[in-house]
Amino acid sequence: MRRVTGIGGVFFKAKDPKALADWYRVHLGLKLEGWGGVAFRWAEDNTNGAGTTAWNLFKGDTSYFAPSTASFMINYRVEDLHALLAALRAEGCKVEDKVDESEYGKFGWVIDPEGNKVELWQPPSGQ
């Protein structure tokens, strides 16, 4: 079973997400989408479809990264979320019980040994 197949997104907290996003747009040339982040498009691991790496800023008081107190969270693309979560549990990893499934794909979370919350994302079919 393949595990991580790429970076699905990079997320971190900011005191003023709009101002910081604007700085990245102005100074580094990131092209912000209407939803406030950047979608880096690629298709390397899915030659018959499309791939995306998301970049987005969250408000400093977000609880989305909890229980981690880190100011960032990495989202990794995976091939089979449920199989990987089961394997991680069997290996003794701290895996959150919650799994979100939507038109954006399947999302699950594991906490690394230093307490960082890691998001695992199985993109929708064809992406």
Describe the structure.
- This is VOC family protein.
- InterPro entries: Anthracycline_SecMetBiosynth, Glyas_Bleomycin-R_OHBP_Dase, Glyoxalase_6, VOC_core.
- Residues 6-123 form the VOC domain.
- With 127 residues, the chain is α+β, with helices and mostly antiparallel strands.
- The protein has one domain: Roll (2,3-Dihydroxybiphenyl 1,2-Dioxygenase, domain 1).
- It contains 2 helices and 8 strands.
- Strands 1, 2, 3, 4, 5, 6, 7 and 8 form an 8-stranded mixed beta sheet that branches.
What is the makeup of the main sheet? 8 strands, mixed
Topology order in helix (H) and strand (E) letters: EHEEEHEEEE
Q: Which of globular, elongated, flat, extended, rod-shaped describes the shape?
A: globular
Broad CATH class: Alpha Beta
- Strand-residue proportion: 35-45%
**Radius of gyration of CA atoms, rounded to a whole number:** 15 Å
Roughly what percent helix?
Answer: 10-25%
CATH level-3 fold name: 2,3-Dihydroxybiphenyl 1,2-Dioxygenase, domain 1
How does CATH name the architecture? Roll
Calculate the terminal CA-CA distance, rounded to whole Å. Answer: 19 Å
User: How many individual helices?
Assistant: 2
Query: Uncertain regions: pLDDT < 50 for 5+ in a row?
Result: none
Structural class: alpha+beta
- Structurally, the number of domains stands at 1
Mean pLDDT: 86
Number of strands: 8
What is the fourth-level CATH superfamily?
Answer: 2,3-Dihydroxybiphenyl 1,2-Dioxygenase, domain 1
Protein name: VOC family protein
Pfam families: Glyoxalase_6 (PF18029)
Organism: Dyella psychrodurans
Domain VOC: 6-123
